[in-house]
């Protein structure tokens, strides 16, 4: 676990976040926090802004308004003398190094072996010794059920296997925050359960904070501490999974769930 200047601050805070693509406002006045060790799932109709939220945390999308804090530290902009000013690229990089992301489309480096994919960032970003990175990579491959695939190339693996490698690669950075963006949406139905089992194990055995976008409602229900329902770029309901799935207070949540469950 990395050191943190403000251990009591939320791990993630969105404060009055706004996101525009050209002249289209996708997120407006969005504020929420995620506490250390919390697993929060974003649900809601397609286009409601779920993936955009994850991409903003990872600084893969430009923040057009408001503030995001990671462990209490401003990620992209900070307020100084009443003005909204960008933070240094160095600080931004330091903070995003603490965040791992797994994408719908795996995004493995196709020209590298599985092992090389996993050790790349720990060696070049964290400065971990190669032999230690390799040892950890083998442990992680064991953990995700692929102990004999270290020397394979991603193209030789099934989608489910590639996604398990992507999870191992994210965990190799020992992240404080793991962002999961529809990680099973591109997979054949029969391997979805394997990938979700790996993630259930990660949830059960680590205290990594997770922000999850998924259409797998039973997974969301089992692993989340909290579920946030988005609609039109706003959080319309945020509650424990039991409440959201059995007794949602918002009619829009009921409609959404009856369509997907
Ligand atoms: P969700 O994950 O809930 O399906 P997204 O965050 O992917 O929603 O998208 C929210 C809205 O932002 C959608 O209307 C989408 O069309 C728009 N959007 C997302 N990415 C871009 C982009 N790169 N350029 C323009 N519009 C985008």
UniProtKB/TrEMBL annotation:
Main location as per UniProt: membrane
One term of GO molecular function: ATP binding
InterPro entries recorded: AAA+_ATPase, ABC_ATPase_HisP-typ, ABC_transporter-like_ATP-bd, ABC_transporter-like_CS, MetN_ABC_transporter-like, P-loop_NTPase
Membrane topology: Peripheral membrane protein
The ABC transporter domain, residue ranges: 12-257
UniProt xrefs under SMART domains: AAA
Keywords: Amino-acid transport, ATP-binding, Cell membrane, Membrane, Nucleotide-binding, Transport
One cellular-component annotation, GO: plasma membrane
Subcellular location as annotated: Cell membrane
Family: Belongs to the ABC transporter superfamily.
PANTHER family per record: AMINO ACID IMPORT ATP-BINDING PROTEIN, GLUTAMATE_ASPARTATE IMPORT ATP-BINDING PROTEIN GLTL
Protein name: L-cystine ABC transporter ATP-binding protein YecC
Organism: Enteractinococcus helveticum
Lineage, broadest ranks: Bacteria, Bacillati, Actinomycetota, Actinomycetes, Micrococcales
């Amino acid at each position: 676990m990395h050191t943190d200047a403000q251990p009591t601050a939320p791990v993630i805070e969105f404060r009055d976040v706004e996101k525009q693509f050209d002249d289209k406002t996708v997120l407006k006045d969005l504020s929420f926090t995620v506490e250390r060790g919390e697993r929060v799932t974003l649900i809601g109709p397609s286009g409601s802004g779920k993936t955009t939220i994850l991409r903003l945390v990872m600084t893969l999308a430009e923040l057009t308004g408001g503030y995001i804090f990671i462990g209490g530290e401003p990620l992209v902009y900070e307020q100084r003398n009443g003005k909204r000013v960008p933070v240094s690229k160095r600080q931004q990089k330091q903070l995003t190094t603490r965040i791992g992301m797994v994408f719908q489309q795996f995004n493995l480096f196709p020209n590298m072996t599985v092992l090389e994919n996993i050790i790349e960032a720990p060696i070049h970003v964290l400065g971990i010794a190669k032999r230690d990175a390799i040892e950890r990579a083998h442990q992680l491959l064991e953990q995700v059920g692929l102990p004999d695939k270290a020397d394979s190339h991603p193209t030789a693996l099934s989608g489910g296997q590639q996604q398990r490698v992507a999870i191992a690669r994210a965990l190799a950075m020992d992240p404080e925050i793991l962002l999961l963006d529809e990680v099973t949406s591109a997979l054949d139905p029969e391997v979805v359960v394997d990938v979700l089992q790996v993630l259930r194990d990660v949830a059960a055995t680590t205290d990594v904070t997770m922000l999850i976008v998924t259409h797998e409602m039973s997974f969301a229900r089992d692993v989340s501490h909290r579920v946030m329902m988005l609609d039109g770029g706003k959080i319309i309901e945020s509650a424990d999974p039991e409440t959201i799935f059995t007794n949602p207070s918002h009619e829009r949540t009921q409609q959404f769930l009856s369509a997907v469950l």
